[in-house]
């Protein structure tokens, strides 16, 4: 199973428009970050996690093949704003999208033309499934277990696939949800910046402490902003089993 980081940036991406900080001016490609999204693939299955406003640009860089499922963490625009660009993949048939109840309702309002009885010609062919936390989903040979984390006060979804877990936009997690992370070997989790603290996102120290609780063999930090610092500098400061993810990075899990 292969993980590809399609985007590792926060809601405004890196570089940030109008910013002249050293990160936004960096020529290192590791410091260029599209909005947060990831892809899990096997020889038979392709699963996307989130489809933000950079989805088209991200997928132009990938081989063109069927998308078997799109897992949505929550309704915020930087995670769902590219769903209309699913259209080219509909030549393989309807695209299955999995979202919790709140996100499903939100999609009905933000892209209602995808769900109309008489669809607008050319609209994406979406098969929307409302998922429940802790109830496994079967996508071909892969079992996906959704679980809850808190984005500030907003409940959103994290995902467990085998020994891999993906979390973004988390501030806290309830104790009862930690059981779904037992035995995780490869963890992806958000870390916005070092400081100041944020009301709805973990910062780096929060993420490193969380990694210690999970006990994963290796962790990749995502959903980061320009305030975190240069990619190379940050990796020198992190524990050896924790690394900043970067756009286009591929990891066997």
Brief description of this entry?
The protein is α/β, with parallel strands linked by helices. It has helices at residues 55-59, 77-80, 101-110, 204-214, 231-237; strands spanning 2-7, 37-41, 46-49, 69-71, 95-99, 126-130, 137-139, 142-151, 154-161, 164-166, 186-190, 218-222, 242-244, 250-252.
How would you describe what is shown here?
The chain is α/β, with parallel strands linked by helices and about 250 residues long. Helices cover about 15% and strands about 25% of the residues. The chain is built from 5 helices and 14 strands. The strands form 2 sheets. The chain has a 7-stranded mixed beta sheet with strand order 6-5-4-3-2-1-14. A 7-stranded mixed beta sheet has the order 7-8-9-10-11-12-13. Strand 4, helix 2 and strand 5 form a beta-alpha-beta unit. The N and C termini lie close together (about 5 Å). The model has no long low-confidence stretch (mean pLDDT about 95).
Task: List descriptors.
253 residues, alpha/beta
Helix content: 10-25%
Mean pLDDT, as a whole number?
97
Biggest β-sheet strands, sense, barrel: 7 strands, mixed
Arrangement of strands in the largest sheet? 6-5-4-3-2-1-14
Calculate the terminal CA-CA distance, rounded to whole Å. 5 Å
Counted beta strands: 14
Compute the number of helices: 5
β-strand percent reads 25-35%
Order of helices and strands: EEEHEHEHEEEEEEHEHEE
Radius of gyration: 17 Å
- Structural class, please? alpha/beta
> Low-confidence stretches at least 5 residues in length (pLDDT < 50)?
none
The outline comes out as globular
Oligomer: single chain
